[in-house]
Amino acid sequence: MNAGTARIVSTATFLVLVLGIILLLNSVPGPLPARGNQGMLFTFMLAGILISAVAMFHVWRSTVMVYSNSALINRQTGDVEGHADRTKVVWDKDSNLKIISLENVECRLSMAVAPISANPKVKNIIYSVRVKALLSSATLFEKFWGFLTKTMGYEVGSATNLYYLVDRVIQYHLYEFNDACGRELSKLSNPLNPQQQKQFFELVSEFLREKLRPLGISIEHASFQFAD
Predict the structure, then answer these.
(1) Is the pLDDT of residue 36 over 70?
(2) What is the pTM of this model?
């Protein structure tokens, strides 16, 4: 049973309960303000109050509070349906909206790669990358979200934390970086050499810059070391 059906069933059950109470009140002899026109008026007033309460409850259950600068995501299609530039209440009868608060985030992640040098020798490299994502912009978020869902096939689930989502996008590109730049990575030999660290940062930046810039993401730092 989906959320919409559940609400209909619960509302119908409540209305039946209301009707039962009204019939019970009418069946009890004695001083409901005297039977006749006054009694009927009392009954209709009671019914109106209870039905209004049910209607208000149903409206409350069918809406969601959206805070300023949030994206509204359709759970079924994964599409961005809108952007809230101010706090407001929106209609969500079937609980079909996923709300993501937009903000700029910085995150750091580590990857491991084991290229083979010309010697040949396997070099177990661990590197870290720090990125900044300007996702407080609705326009950039839509491009970012489009890449995440259309290119990576991400399905709208429970995870709406922007740090997690940015991490997934960066991982996607770093796996491709590892594959495409294995030869250059195999030439690294000394993580204590500032020139090699600079070369590594430039290698990462050159590979990722044009891929991430349209998504509002920039590379802030990258460094490598060897696994013990």
Answers:
(1) no
(2) 0.70
